[in-house]
Write a structure and sequence with these properties.
Layout lengths: L4 H23 L7 E6 L4 E9 L7 E15 L1 H10 L13 E14 L6 E11 L11 E11 L5 H15 L6 H12 L1 E2 L4 E2 L3 E8 L18 H13 L1 H12 L6 H20 L2 H8 L5 H4 L23 H10 L6
Antiparallel strand pairs: 1-2, 2-3, 3-4, 4-5, 5-6, 6-9, 7-8
Helix pairs in contact: 1-5, 1-6, 3-6
Keywords: Oxidoreductase, Porphyrin biosynthesis
GO biological process, one term: protoporphyrinogen IX biosynthetic process
EC number: 1.3.3.3
C-alpha cells in the first residue's frame, strides 16, 4: 500500500526544492549561497525557507525564494463554510460550531533576476486535505490540488515566451489535451490588474480544487483529464518538474545580455505593478496572512527588493513604438504563445 498522500507530497516538494536551489546556485558560483532556515509552527507543522538576496551587483539573481511548508491544525467554522461551497463532500451546517482538522503542503517560489532582459518567474504547487479526525491513516473527507506558474517580463522576447509555454503544454498533454488551453486562459484572467487594465505578465497555467469531483473549468466531461488521486498527483509532479526546463534556459541565456539605466528603470516600474497585484489581488497572499501562526516573512517573500512608482511616467506609453510599449501591448492583449 502506498503511503498517505500527505507523506508523498512532502517527500516530493522537499526533493523539488532541493533540485531548484541547486540549479540556481550552480548558475552563479561567485554569488553568496541561499540562506536556508527551517521553521516550525506552534499550531502544527514545519517548513523550510531557502532565500537569496545579493549585494553583489554582478550576480544573476537579485532576489529569490524557494519555500516549502507542511502544516496542520484546525479550520474555524467560517473557513469550513467557504470550502463546503466548492466541495460538496465537506459537511457544513449553520449549526456547526466545531473546528475541522486540515493538512496543507506546498512549494512556492519566486525569482527576481537582476538583468531587465530576464523575466521574473513564479510558481506554486500545493495539496490540501480535510480529515474527519486526527489519525493520519484515516481517509480524508476531502482533498484537492492547486497550482500556478507564470512569467513577468519587462521586455518582449517571443522565443523565450514560446519556449516557456511549450514546455508547460508538454507537461500537461499526457493527461489530456484540454488542460493546457483551459488552465492557460484561467491564468491570464487571474493575473489582471483592473485599475491599470493590464495583465501582470505573460501568464502560464493556473488551476485549483483539482480532485476526483468534476472540475468547473473542464466542462466537457468527455475530454480526457486526470481523475484519480494518483493521476492528479502525477499531473502536478509533471508541472513541478517542468519548472527547471521551462525557465532556467531563459535565465541562463538572457543574463549575459547588456542593459542600460533606462532598462533598469523600466524593470523597477514593472516590479511596482508586481507589488500592486500581490498586495491588492493575490489570493495566496491574502490566505497566507490570514492563517494563524503564519510566517509573515515567507508570505511576503515574493515581493521584489526594489520597485518604482513614477507619476505619469514617460516609459511604456502604448503605441509609441518603443521596446517598453511593445511589452505593454502584450500585457493589455494576452497572446497565444503556441
Amino acid at each position: 500500500m502506498d503511503p498517505p498522500m500527505r507523506e508523498r507530497i512532502t517527500v516530493y516538494i522537499e526533493n523539488l526544492q532541493r533540485r531548484i536551489v541547486n540549479v540556481l546556485q550552480e548558475l552563479d558560483h561567485d554569488a553568496p549561497p541561499f540562506d536556508i532556515v527551517d521553521w516550525s509552527r506552534d499550531e502544527g507543522g514545519r517548513g523550510r525557507a531557502c532565500t537569496f538576496t545579493s549585494p553583489v551587483t554582478t550576480s544573476i539573481l537579485e532576489k529569490a525564494a524557494v519555500n516549502i511548508s507542511m502544516i496542520h491544525g484546525n479550520l474555524p467554522p467560517s473557513a469550513v463554510q467557504k470550502i463546503a461551497m466548492e466541495h460538496p463532500s465537506v459537511s457544513y451546517s449553520k449549526d456547526t460550531s466545531s473546528n475541522l482538522p486540515f493538512f496543507a503542503a506546498g512549494i512556492s517560489l519566486i525569482i527576481h533576476p537582476r538583468n531587465p532582459n530576464v523575466p521574473s518567474a513564479h510558481a506554486n504547487y500545493r495539496y490540501f486535505e480535510i480529515k474527519p479526525g486526527t489519525n493520519t491513516s484515516e481517509t480524508p473527507q476531502a482533498w484537492w490540488f492547486g497550482g500556478i506558474t507564470d512569467l513577468t517580463p519587462s521586455y518582449l522576447f517571443e522565443d523565450d515566451f514560446r519556449h516557456f509555454h511549450r514546455t508547460l503544454k508538454e507537461a500537461c498533454d499526457p493527461y489530456g489535451s484540454a488542460l493546457y488551453p483551459v488552465f492557460k486562459q484561467n491564468c491570464d484572467e487571474y493575473f489582471f490588474l483592473k485599475h491599470h487594465n493590464e495583465h501582470r505578465g505573460i501568464g502560464g497555467l493556473r488551476f485549483d480544487n483539482l480532485c476526483e469531483e468534476p472540475h468547473s473549468l473542464l466542462k466537457d466531461a468527455s475530454a480526457p483529464r486526470p481523475q484519480t488521486a494518483e493521476e492528479i498527483f502525477g499531473f502536478v509532479r509533471n508541472l513541478g518538474d517542468a519548472f527547471i526546463p521551462s525557465y532556467i534556459p531563459i535565465l541562463s541565456n538572457r543574463s549575459s545580455t547588456g542593459w542600460s539605466p533606462k532598462m533598469r528603470r523600466w524593470q523597477l516600474i514593472r516590479r511596482g505593478r508586481y507589488v500592486e497585484f500581490n498586495l491588492i489581488y493575490d489570493r495566496g497572499t491574502k490566505f497566507g496572512l490570514a492563517v494563524p501562526g503564519v510566517q509573515v516573512e515567507n508570505v511576503l517573500a515574493s515581493l521584489p527588493e526594489e520597485a518604482r512608482w513614477e507619476y505619469m511616467s514617460d516609459l511604456g506609453i502604448e503605441g509609441d513604438g518603443s521596446e517598453e510599449s511593445k511589452m505593454v501591448d502584450v500585457l493589455k492583449y494576452p497572446r497565444s504563445w503556441i
